[in-house]
Amino acid sequence: MRKVFGDFELTVEAGYFRTSQIVVLMGENGTGKTTFIRLLAGKINPDNQDQPRLNLTVSYKPQKLSPKNIAGTVRHLLQTTILDQFIHPHFRSEVMKPLAIDDLLDLQVAQLSGGELQRVALVLCLGKPADLYLIDEPSAYLDSEQRIHTMKIIKRFIFNSKASAFVVEHDLIMAAYLADRMIVFEGNPGISATARRQCSMAEGMNDFLRHLDITVRRDPTNMRPRINKYKSSRHMEQKKAGVFFASQPCKY
Ligand SMILES: Nc1ncnc2c1ncn2[C@@H]1O[C@H](COP(=O)(O)OP(=O)(O)OP(=O)(O)O)[C@@H](O)[C@H]1O
């Protein structure tokens, strides 16, 4: 698939995805992740119109959230857009409660903070039944604790609903937690880039981090990824071995 936008050209290599699987899109700013998500969402068309269309229902959370023209409260918005899920006990306990949406119900949508709006936007996205969820930067505006909550909610929701998801995520730790598979975007930001064929999370992370000259180890106590200090002995050792993202704590 190909898309030219002014001076920018995106090429997408052919790939596949499965149910209950999350594909995380990683790449530098301006390499076309949002463009790709918008192509999948049908918001824009590829240049090569002979592309087979995805015969799937999609639900899309855009990167930029614009509440200013939405009148009324969060309760009104949710009741008028996702009523079935809004009153469904399972959705309430699995998505709305952990995102603390009840605290926001009586607030005006137009007056929500960035983080509050992000939580509402995620509920709206997951509240729409779909085969494919397209979620652009779910952790933007959230603090670190909310990010972890949010990632757990998305992971559990996609697994249990047997849907699939493509998620744009800049936070390395969150990306590593979320991803079953990964698509790495490579190229010259704002000029031309390629969305590589999807690969395993470890492979994708390794490619992305090699490009940035960053190495990540695993904390042996909790397995969380930790970024090595640049040019530290650990960094140099991993770099020499070509292990930019260590999936096991034992060696690094
Ligand atoms: N509507 C448009 N018209 C012209 N150019 C556009 C349009 N939308 C995006 N672009 C250009 O396409 C390129 C890729 O943008 P895109 O937002 O897809 O990248 P991204 O990887 O999602 O970036 P970020 O991580 O910063 O969100 C940029 O150079 C951008 O200026």
Give a verbal description of the structure.
By secondary structure, this protein is an alpha/beta fold. The chain has one domain: 3-Layer(aba) Sandwich (Rossmann fold). Helices cover 35% and strands 20% of the residues. It contains 9 helices and 11 strands. Strands 1, 2, 3, 4, 5, 6, 7, 8 and 9 form a 9-stranded mixed beta sheet that branches. Strand 7 and strand 8 form a beta hairpin. The longest helix is centred in the middle third of the chain and has 18 residues, at 144-161. It binds adenosine-5'-triphosphate. Adenosine-5'-triphosphate (ATP) binds at residues 5-6, 8, 27, 29-35, 63, 190. It holds the Pfam family ABC_tran. One of its GO terms (molecular function) is ATP binding. This is ABC transporter domain-containing protein. Residues 1-212 form the ABC transporter domain.
Find the CATH superfamily: P-loop containing nucleotide triphosphate hydrolases
Query: Terminal Cα separation, in Å?
Result: 39 Å
Helix-strand category: alpha/beta
Computed over alpha carbons, the radius of gyration is: 19 Å
Helix content: 25-40%
SSE topology sketch:
Layout: E1 2-5, E2 8-12, E3 21-27, H1 33-40, E4 58-61, H2 74-81, H3 83-86, H4 89-96, H5 114-126, E5 132-136, H6 144-161, E6 164-168, H7 172-178, E7 181-188, E8 192-195, E9 199-200, H8 201-212, E10 216-218, E11 225-227, H9 233-241
Parallel strand pairs: 2-8, 3-6, 3-7, 4-5, 5-6
Antiparallel strand pairs: 1-2, 7-8, 7-9, 10-11
The chain binds adenosine-5'-triphosphate.
Adenosine-5'-triphosphate is lined by residues 5-6, 8, 27, 29-35, 63, 190.
